Write a sequence for this structure.
DNA sequence: AAGTATAACAACCGCCTTTGT
DNA sequence: CACAAAGGCGGTTGTTATACT
């Protein structure tokens, strides 16, 4: 029997179901078996692949393991600022179409993006005590979170430019950008040149936040609506008007979450309590 | 140091669509 | 055209690592 160029011993469906199928975490041996088999015969036809490779797994399980973990081009590690921005932007456009979103983040899987959304974005919605799909939260993302990400990417790019002069290899600049994006070491290992996204959004690198002239219509609006200078200071003692904030929300947590300050919170309170 | 809570990630499940017969 | 199998996708759950008390 030939399966996508493969020749293997046919097994009936009954025989397959009779065989005890393994479930749960994959072992190193299973990974090696799958990788070696795909290396020799290519991917696809997952059910027969699983059978022919001698893996006691469903075709679906093999496919998932390969696509989400074993593929050589799969990119692992922290989601960078640029990737976060792109995820937020694309999700606002397409919703939970994870695979579609993943197509725009090379090396990232739909599963990874989906997990990011659930663990990070929905966490923030929970902290704000609002639904992640609510207009309020979407506005918060669009008008506060995303601009903050842009600012941070710009700041990182500027820092990278400054130090690039002292770094000879081109790759060092990209590495430095990610390191500069945060004092945390977590970014250093995962590098995505900011220029990729600056091109995508076509915004100028400028440290003056108020001068950002976004070509993207959404970000133009962001700048109009959420110009930090337009925010008035929160009245003293006005912090618990219906919204409870974890201190990590603005004081701590990892660098990717640390995009908020008291003014943001006050502003959000005003918006959400309307 | 131990116990608990939370975050992050990997994997499975069910449904829908596509493809082959 | 109808049916079955396979593939793909989004939702959900389980496990492990890490942080916190």
């Amino acid at each position: 029997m030939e399966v996508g160029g493969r020749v293997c011993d046919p097994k009936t469906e009954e025989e397959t179901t009779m065989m005890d199928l393994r479930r749960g975490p994959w072992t190193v041996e299973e990974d090696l078996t799958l990788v070696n088999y795909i290396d020799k015969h290519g991917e696809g036809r997952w059910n027969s692949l699983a059978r022919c490779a001698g893996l006691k797994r469903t075709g679906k399980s093999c496919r998932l393991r390969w696509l989400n973990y074993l593929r050589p081009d799969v990119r692992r590690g922290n989601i960078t600022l640029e990737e976060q921005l792109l995820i937020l932007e694309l999700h606002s456009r397409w919703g939970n179409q994870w695979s579609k979103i993943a197509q725009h983040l090379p090396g990232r899987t739909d599963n990874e993006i989906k997990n990011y959304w659930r663990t990070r974005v929905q966490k923030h919605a929970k902290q704000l005590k609002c639904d992640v799909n609510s207009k309020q939260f979407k506005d918060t993302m669009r008008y506060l979170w995303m601009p903050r990400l842009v600012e941070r990417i710009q700041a990182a790019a500027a820092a990278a430019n400054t130090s690039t002069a002292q770094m000879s290899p081109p790759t060092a600049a990209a590495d430095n950008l990610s390191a500069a994006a945060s004092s945390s070491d977590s970014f250093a290992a995962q590098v995505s040149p900011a220029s990729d996204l600056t091109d995508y959004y076509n915004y100028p690198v400028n440290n003056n936040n108020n001068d950002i002239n976004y070509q993207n219509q959404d970000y133009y609006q962001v700048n109009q609506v959420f110009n930090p200078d337009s925010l008035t200071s929160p009245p003293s003692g006005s912090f618990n008007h219906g919204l409870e904030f974890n201190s990590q929300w603005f004081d701590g947590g990892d660098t990717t979450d640390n995009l908020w300050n008291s003014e943001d919170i006050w502003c959000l309170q005003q918006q959400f309590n309307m």
